[in-house]
Amino acid sequence: MTHTANNGSHAHRQRLEPKLVRLIAGLRHHQVVEAVSELLDYIDARTEACDQERHQNESRQTVSKILKSVASYHLALDRRQHGGAACSTLAGEIEAILSAPWVPGQELTRYEKGSS
Q1: What is the pLDDT of residues 67-82, one digit of tens each?
Q2: Exposed / middle / buried, residue 55 (Cβ in 10 Å: 0-12, 13-18, 19+)
Q3: Rounded to 5°, angle at Cα 94 from 93 and 96
Q4: Which of 98, 76, 79, 80 is nearest to 88 (CA)?
Q5: Which is more confidently placed, 66 or 34?
Q6: Nearest-CA neighbor of 72 among 88, 90, 47?
């Protein structure tokens, strides 16, 4: 299997790979199976940690965008713009940020079915 590494880890991988090959070559079958299992567990844990970190970063970015929209709304109010228009703009920006546009009738249908 081919593994693509970024430039920072490429040199580290080049130093580590021969050591791992020598280590694995000296192992018995059951030791290889155990070592591979340990490596896969480590990779799975790292992948999960990276996924969680990526999700946290995305959440932070979303909240930051919403806060920026709220600040723009407050600025519009400070400038004495019409509150309804400013609020409509804010709602539209938040819908866009969350990829949750209004679908006419969708929420009414859900409400009427009792699954709010």
Answers
A1: 999 999 999 999 999 9
A2: exposed
A3: 65
A4: 76
A5: 66
A6: 90
Q: Which amino acid is at 42?
A: Y
Q: What is the DSSP annotation of 11-79?
A: HHHHHHHHHHHHHHHTS-HHHHHHHHHHHHHHHHHHHHHHHHHHHHHHHHHHHHHHHHHHHHHHHHHHT
Which residues, including other chains, have CB under 8 Å from residue 23's CB and lie 6 or more apart? 35
Q: What gap in Å lies between CA 106 and CA 60, rounded to an integer? A: 28
Identity of the amino acid at 90: L
Judge if pTM exceeds 0.90. no
